[in-house]
Structure formats: structure tokens, C-alpha cells
């Protein structure tokens, strides 16, 4: 669900106000729409805990590794954990290769904590999370968090019950973060990230993972003003010009600004956009390689949604273009996890290209800011001169 408005803004589809006007929570809507069974019928969850919805994984459609191959991968990861610093410093290329293949599900929580460094931060800050929970916190943040709890994966067994264990753990993680980083406070986009982490690990571990992600990977994304996400949106658009010139021209002509379609992709790290098996594979790579994974994924999504004359001809206005980029109905290609990652590595975009575009956009923003300051300064001087030239009134 890619929102046209920044994720900070209330009132988007699925928000508490929208739910009220539509007559109930996401879970109740799903019951009426037949996405999950009612209480009189047995409901089977998939192996990730989803009861229905677009992130439900059909067991009959899911491809799973043979047990012997899975055990070999688990053994390799366990060996890496023993000498983690050595692997990261001297054999990072092999770590990256194994992350791209996918972390074994049984070791995913441990791997993610090692990849982002939260495992070591937790060891150095034992007891801090519990101390945060004793603090009352900012009343507005607490109120906003409470309102958003029902929205996070309402068709997942962990968050299905209002006031249940899952929602309470989610509240604790988000509250602790708002206390840990009081300037940022709480942002809606942090909630699905925290919920995903809680599906894999206890609350304290999830909290420190969230801290690491916000500090190291998504720096400034949740700060007031959304300046960091706007900058990365401009970087993404610049990369589109290189990889898909026809899409770039189409969006430029319709004035489709990056902030209108990529905000939730990046701020929620695709947790609310892609099929769950794809989300997990993407996170394995994201926590290993960093934010460039978000750019590569975004470029593939744009190509799948808009590339080709047939696709572009079906988007005569900004409205149709944005509807396609919301990906409410996923194209078949994006339901194949191998397709997305294969395509993302064959875009013809290097890390150096991304860094060059990033510097370019920083310079562009700096020049625009200086020009505006100069204009404001000139306006102030002209106003001052006019004031001085004004003739005095006769008494």
C-alpha cells in the first residue's frame, strides 16, 4: 500500500479514522470480505502466522528448500556466528552471498541481530529497555502509538487480538524508542518495522534492532520534516533516469514527485508492499548491504509497473500512474522472490552510481537553498531601502 501522503500523516487508508468511517477494524473488514474465516470455521495460518490478506503465503504455492540443503546452510551460518567479526571484516563477500540466497528461517532472528549490530549493543545496555518501560513517556506519542496498534498486520495471529501479547509487545518497543530518541519521538512508519521484528524475536531484542535500523540504515527518515526521505526520493528519481528513461520522462511530464509513491516503500522497508516471502529475503539483504537494497528494489518495482508502451498508455494522468505504483494488485512477477532479486542485480546500476547521484542531489538541494536565502536577503534589503526612502510626514 504505497501512500500518496507521507507516512506521518493520519487519515490514510487503514488509519483509525478511516476504519471508523468504513465500519470497523481491518480484521472485521477482512471477515466481511471473506479474507479470513469467521469464528464458526477453522482458520489455518500459513507458516509465518498470517490468516489471510495479500501477505498470506499459500503452502501449496510456496517453494521450500530440501531439508538436506537447508541443514547445510544452517551449519554454515552457525559457523559464521562463532567468528562473526572475522567473517565481516575478511570474508564479507561470502556473507553477502549467503544473505542473497536467504538466511535459514530458524536462524533469521540471530542473523539479523548480528548483521545490524544490535546483538552487541544489547549486551552493552542490559536493563536499559526495562528502565524505559518504567518511564511514562510523552503523552502525545503514547496516544499515537495506542491508536496505531490495530493497524499493524491485523491478519497476523500475533497482532489479531486487541490488547493481546503481540500488541502489548509492539507498544513497549515503540514507546521505548520514543523515549530513547525523544527528538524523533514516534512515527507511524516505525510500527510495521517493529512488528516484523517482533515476529522473530522478543521485545528487548526487537527494540535494539529497531534502534540500529533507524540509526545506521534509515538515518533521519523519521525526523520531523522528512528531509532525508525526500533526498533519497530525488536520488531514486535520478537513478530512474539512467535505468528507465521512458518512465522518467512519463513521470516528469505528469509531475509525479518521488515522495508520492516511494515514501512507504522506503520508510517501512517494503513490509506493507511485497509478499511475505519476498519481504524476508529482502530484509536478509537489506541488513547486510544497507539502503542500496531499497533503491534497487524500487527501480525494479517501477520497471514492472510502468515499463513498456502498453503500461504507459494505460496511465494517461497522474492518478492512473500513482494507482499502478500503489501495487494493490501485485503483478505475477513480483510474487516470485527470485525474479525481484535477480532483476535488482541486473539493473546496470553500481554502488558508485548511487553515491554519485546522492552527491549530485545534495549539491542540487544546497544550491537551491542558497539561492532562496539570497533571494530572501535581497528582498529584505530592498524593503529596508524603501523604508529609508519613505518621506517623513509633516507635523
Give the helices and strands, then pairings.
Layout: H1 16-22, H2 26-33, H3 67-82, H4 84-90, H5 92-101, H6 108-116, H7 118-124, H8 128-134, H9 139-148, H10 165-180, H11 190-198, H12 203-217, H13 227-243, H14 245-253, H15 263-267, H16 276-289, H17 292-306, H18 309-313, H19 318-325, H20 337-344, H21 351-389
Helix pairs in contact: 4-5, 5-16, 6-16, 7-12, 9-10, 10-11, 10-12, 11-12, 13-14, 13-17, 13-21, 16-17, 16-20, 17-20
Describe, in plain words, how this protein is organized in 3D.
With 395 residues, the protein is an all-alpha fold. It folds into 2 domains: 1-37 and 45-58 and 96-224, putative rabgap domain of human tbc1 domain family member 14 like domains (Helicase, Ruva Protein, domain 3), CATH 1.10.8.270; 227-352, Ypt/Rab-GAP domain of gyp1p, domain 3 (Cyclin A, domain 1). 61% of the residues lie in helices and 0% in strands. It contains 21 helices and no strands. The chain has helices spanning 16-22, 26-33, 67-82, 84-90, 92-101, 108-116, 118-124, 128-134, 139-148, 165-180, 190-198, 203-217, 227-243, 245-253, 263-267, 276-289, 292-306, 309-313, 318-325, 337-344, 351-389. The longest helix is centred in the last third of the chain and has 39 residues, at 351-389. The protein is globular, with a radius of gyration of 24 Å. The protein starts with 15 loop residues before the first helix and ends in a 6-residue tail after the last helix. Residues 1-23 and 37-41 have low confidence and may be disordered. Residues 102-290 form the Rab-GAP TBC domain. Residues 353-376 have a biased composition (Basic and acidic residues). It holds the Pfam family RabGAP-TBC.
Amino acid at each position: 500500500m504505497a501512500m500518496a501522503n507521507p507516512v506521518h500523516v493520519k487519515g490514510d487508508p487503514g488509519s483509525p479514522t478511516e476504519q471508523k468511517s468504513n465500519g470497523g477494524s481491518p480484521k472485521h473488514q477482512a471477515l466481511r470480505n471473506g479474507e479470513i474465516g469467521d469464528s464458526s470455521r477453522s482458520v489455518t495460518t500459513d507458516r509465518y502466522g498470517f490468516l489471510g490478506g495479500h501477505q498470506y503465503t499459500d503452502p501449496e504455492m510456496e517453494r521450500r528448500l530440501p531439508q538436506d540443503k537447508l541443514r547445510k546452510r544452517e551449519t554454515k551460518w552457525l559457523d559464521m556466528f562463532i567468528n562473526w567479526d572475522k567473517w565481516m571484516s575478511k570474508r564479507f563477500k561470502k556473507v553477502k552471498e549467503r544473505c542473497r540466497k536467504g538466511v535459514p528461517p530458524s536462524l533469521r532472528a540471530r542473523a539479523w541481530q548480528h548483521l545490524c549490530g544490535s546483538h552487541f549493543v544489547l549486551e552493552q545496555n542490559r536493563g536499559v529497555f526495562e528502565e524505559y518501560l518504567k518511564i511514562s513517556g510523552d503523552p502525545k506519542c503514547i496516544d499515537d502509538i495506542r491508536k496505531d496498534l490495530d493497524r499493524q498486520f491485523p491478519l497476523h495471529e500475533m497482532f489479531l487480538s486487541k490488547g493481546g501479547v503481540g500488541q502489548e509487545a509492539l507498544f513497549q518497543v515503540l514507546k521505548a524508542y520514543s523515549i530513547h530518541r525523544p527528538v524523533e519521538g514516534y512515527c507511524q512508519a516505525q510500527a510495521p518495522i517493529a512488528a516484523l521484528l517482533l515476529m522473530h524475536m522478543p521485545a528487548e531484542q526487537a527494540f535494539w534492532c529497531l534502534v540500529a535500523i533507524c540509526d545506521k540504515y534509515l538515518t533521519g527518515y523519521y525526523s520531523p520534516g522528512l528531509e532525508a526521505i525526500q533526498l533519497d526520493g530525488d536520488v531514486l528519481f535520478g537513478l530512474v533516469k539512467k535505468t528507465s528513461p521512458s518512465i522518467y520522462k512519463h513521470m516528469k511530464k505528469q509531475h509525479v514527485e518521488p515522495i508520492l509513491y516511494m515514501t512507504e516503500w522506503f520508510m517501512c522497508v517494503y513490509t506493507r508492499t511485497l509478499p511475505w516471502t519476498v519481504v524476508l529475503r529482502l530484509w536478509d539483504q537489506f541488513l547486510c548491504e544497507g539502503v542500496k537494497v531499497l533503491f534497487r528494489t524500487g527501480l525494479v518495482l517501477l520497471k514492472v509497473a510502468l515499463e513498456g508502451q502498453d503500461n504507459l498508455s494505460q496511465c494517461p494522468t497522474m492518478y492512473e500512474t500513482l494507482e499502478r505504483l500503489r501495487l494493490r494488485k501485485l503483478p505475477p512477477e513480483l510474487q516470485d522472490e527470485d525474479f525481484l532479486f535477480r532483476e535488482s542485480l541486473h539493473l546496470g546500476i553500481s554502488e558508485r552510481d548511487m553515491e554519485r547521484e546522492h552527491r549530485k542531489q545534495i549539491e542540487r538541494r544546497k544550491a537551491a537553498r542558497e539561492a532562496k536565502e539570497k533571494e530572501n536577503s535581497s528582498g529584505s534589503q530592498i524593503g529596508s531601502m524603501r523604508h529609508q526612502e519613505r518621506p517623513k510626514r509633516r507635523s
